[in-house]
């Protein structure tokens, strides 16, 4: 085992990850999880992976995300501080993500928010997440709740089905020229936009995906066009996260996402899951999305998702929809 693995301290090292040391850190995490994660270890052995030969990111095996539905995916033995569970229907099996240290999750989303949006204290943060508030164990609700607390604004908070109150609150905040973030699940934002169209100059709209069968499925472009028209804004922001991750990527418009430094997107061939493609300086890549999330220190940092996407030379990426034959989760992004 790489000697540096023994000294990995996520709460100290997560924010020190840079483009220059990302690969070294990821390889150390791979060795750590190969030895300390029984599910990942067995997966690697089934593929005849020899850790000594894993010396570049391209060679790291990515665990299919479906394992979070059928196995307990943990690195080291621990009593979970929290259990995050995906949404779904009575016909689906939900993913479960056991979290060893909530402080690590909070560090990840807090630092990412600051990186992309600045100090939460500068914002009034409003969450329109009815479907998530109605169930337990939502990582998105926990993130929103903590950011609302960090905001400290008197009108920051959750709105369940109080659309008229939300409308009145936004009108007041707009009059005050208060910088506001309205983060919402897609179907709820559409409901609000159609029932209470309003011109927003100082409010950023962020959709988190998810129709949950509440409305007709629309493409992200169609959703953003409706929201832009009804709120009279030029861009709709988006968040890309999931139950199985402790980090999020953000888009400030046009569906183009960027990751914080401790998270990276690589692509795999749909017909060859072991063929990993890194960003290419000369062309845009298309394929199935793999995520490296170094905040997932105590679950699995290398996850093969069910999403298809494009990866650009600058490491930004775009979600094109779901792969064929993959289960549709309530928190999944909009399919094309």
In brief:
This protein is an alpha/beta fold. Helices cover 30% and strands 23% of the residues.
Descriptive tags:
single chain; 336 residues; alpha/beta; 13-stranded mixed sheet; two-stranded antiparallel sheet; 10 helices; 15 strands; globular; disordered N terminus; disordered C terminus
Write the layout of secondary structure elements.
Blueprint: H1 10-13, H2 22-36, H3 38-46, E1 63-64, H4 67-70, E2 82-85, E3 96-99, H5 102-117, E4 124-128, H6 130-133, H7 139-151, E5 157-159, H8 163-175, E6 180-184, H9 186-195, E7 203-207, H10 220-231, E8 237-240, E9 249-251, E10 256-258, E11 263-269, E12 272-277, E13 285-293, E14 302-311, E15 317-322
Parallel strand pairs: 1-14, 4-5, 4-6, 6-7, 7-8
Antiparallel strand pairs: 2-3, 8-9, 9-10, 10-15, 11-12, 11-13, 13-14, 14-15
Q: State the helicity in percent bands.
A: 25-40%
pLDDT average, as an integer? 88
CATH topology of the largest domain: Rossmann fold
What is the molecular shape? Answer: globular
> How many separate domains make up the residues?
2
Q: Which class of the largest domain in CATH terms?
A: Alpha Beta
Could you state the order of secondary-structure elements as H and E? HHHEHEEHEHHEHEHEHEEEEEEEE
> Tally of extended strands?
15
Gyration radius, in Å: 20 Å
| N-end to C-end Cα span | 43 Å
Low-confidence stretches: 1-6, 326-336
What is the makeup of the main sheet?
13 strands, mixed
Number of helices: 10
């Amino acid at each position: 085992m790489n000697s540096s693995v023994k000294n990995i301290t996520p709460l100290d090292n997560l924010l020190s990850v840079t483009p220059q040391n990302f690969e070294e850190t990821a390889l150390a995490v791979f060795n750590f999880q190969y030895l300390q994660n029984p599910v990942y270890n067995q997966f690697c052995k089934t593929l005849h992976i020899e850790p000594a030969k894993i010396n570049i990111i391209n060679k790291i095996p990515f665990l299919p995300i479906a394992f979070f539905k059928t196995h307990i995916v943990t690195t080291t033995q621990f009593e979970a501080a929290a259990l995050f569970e995906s949404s779904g229907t009575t016909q689906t099996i939900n993913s479960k993500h056991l979290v060893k240290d909530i402080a690590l999750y909070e560090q990840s989303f807090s630092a990412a928010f600051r990186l992309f949006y600045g100090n939460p204290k500068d914002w009034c943060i409003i969450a329109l997440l009815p479907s998530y508030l109605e169930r337990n164990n939502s990582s998105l609700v926990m993130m929103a709740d903590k950011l609302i607390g960090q905001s400290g604004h008197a009108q920051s908070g959750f709105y369940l089905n109080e659309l008229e109150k939300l409308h009145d609150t936004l009108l007041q905040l707009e009059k005050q020229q208060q910088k506001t973030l309205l983060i919402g699940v897609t179907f709820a934002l559409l409901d609000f936009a159609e029932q209470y169209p309003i011109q927003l100059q100082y409010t950023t709209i962020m959709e988190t995906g998810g129709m949950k069968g509440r409305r007709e499925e629309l493409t992200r472009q169609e959703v953003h066009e409706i929201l832009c028209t009804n709120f009279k804004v030029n861009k709709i922001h988006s968040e890309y996260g999931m139950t199985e991750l402790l980090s999020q990527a953000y888009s400030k418009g046009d569906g183009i996402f960027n990751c914080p430094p401790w998270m990276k997107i690589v692509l795999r061939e749909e017909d060859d899951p072991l063929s990993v493609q890194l960003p290419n300086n000369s062309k845009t890549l298309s394929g199935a999305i793999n995520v490296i999330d170094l905040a997932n220190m105590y679950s699995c940092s290398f996850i093969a998702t069910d999403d298809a996407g494009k990866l650009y030379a600058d490491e930004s990426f775009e979600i094109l929809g779901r792969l064929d034959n993959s289960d549709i989760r309530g928190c999944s992004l909009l399919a094309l």
